[in-house]
Design goal:
About 45% of the residues lie in helices and about 10% in strands. About 40% of the residues are buried. The structure holds uracil. Uracil (URA) binds next to α7.
Length: about 260
Amino acid sequence: MSAPERRAQYLQAIGVDLWLPRAAVAGAAAPLEAPGGAPHVPERAPAVAEVAAAPAPAPGAEAADWEQLRAQVLSCTRCALHESRTQAVFGVGNPRAEWMVIGEAPGAEEDRRGEPFVGRAGQLLDAMLRAVGLSRATNVFIANILKCRPPGNRDPRPEEVAACLPYLHRQIDSVRPRMLLAVGRIAAQNLLATDAPLGRLRGRVHHFGERNVPLLVTYHPAYLLRSPADKRKAWEDLQFARSVFAQTLNAEPNDGHRP
Ligand code: URA
């Protein structure tokens, strides 16, 4: 199966096949147009799989730090959520990935299994990521703002975010991604320290932290399950993210962190 055919199949799986430009299915590059009037990037962005490394264990001290961080998260009692959790959910994927996807908090299934995005929303997220060559098995790391499940899946409380966010910051410092994708309002607002609505945060390149990592915002897959008409916009966001990622590769081919 050719790459465009595979992509068409993935898009069909997430329900955005109907509007896919015919030329893209036939083999031409799909237009990379940013939503909300952000700059058009004419160059074809490589599929992420073409440029991202396969999982590699972090060497020596880095690996020890990472495992220490994981142990801290798993035994954390910084907020009351530890009392109701089954287990904390550290994150999943390649600890040296070039992409990190950040969600909100574990749900019931994630709390039970100890892995982020494993319920229905997670299946949709995986399909969306696959459509741009990303997979938790190889080239992306997925984590949440909160590591423990809020009871009843309520929104995170400010004191819970304040207690937990430093863990995510340390994860980002350690992974050193080239691209951050915030899925949903809660992830976007907390990473960017803003209360702007999601609609205003999509379609622009934000930057995160001292390394100015490009950060893009899209819809949460649980929202897309409820509002499938917006899957098309989510696909535009992913295409935009892919084109921004390609630009980072041109600007700075290797930071020495990866082989
Ligand atoms: N929603 C999230 O934001 N994160 C998960 O891990 C699962 C569902």
